[in-house]
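Hi W., the fe (ii) ion complex you wanted:
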Amino acid sequence: MKNEEFAYNKSGWNLHMMPVGYLMIEHRLIERMIKLMADELVLNIKNGKVNLSFIDAAIDFIKNYADKCHHGKEEDILFRDLTKKNMSAEHKKIMEELIQEHVIGRQTVVRLVSAKEEYASSKTKSTAEIEKNIKWLIEFYPKHIAKEDKQFFLPCMGYFDKEGQARMLEEFYAFDGETIQDKYKKIVKDLER
Ligand SMILES: [Fe+2]
Ligand SMILES: [Fe+2]
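Structure:
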């Protein structure tokens, strides 16, 4: 069954789900990849071994799913619409922190990519840089996700009426297109085997 989690139905989208529900479902998939990265860190990287195909899959996931697809919807749709609302000082402050955290996350992925390339091209035999950046990411994501899930997402929905929420959810579906959710769900599932 296609995109069951996202509650698609035959007549179209299920517009009764809150848009932040969609983002929270994505958080659960990101957490599964983070768990795989944490396992890889303990089993291989800390022992000086690097499974390059796993690192490539992790980089692809973080870049294209966690950042482009997930942070993309947060920044380009949710945060964009929130800035048009009369947000409380507290919510504004959290949103600015979240945006800043996305920036630091991106910079860390760039560092991980160059550490991986140095290692793959045998410029270095050390796994220290790969270890450092993977470690940073597996510590970062759970904290960032918890801040959104527990302090930000639900109160923010209070700024939108039912219609506004439904419109946002439709925009999320359009942003994603038909294939990206299934693609990355499968990637994670296959890595978990
Ligand atoms: Fe975020
Ligand atoms: Fe998020």
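Confidence is low (pLDDT under 50) at residues 9-13.

W.
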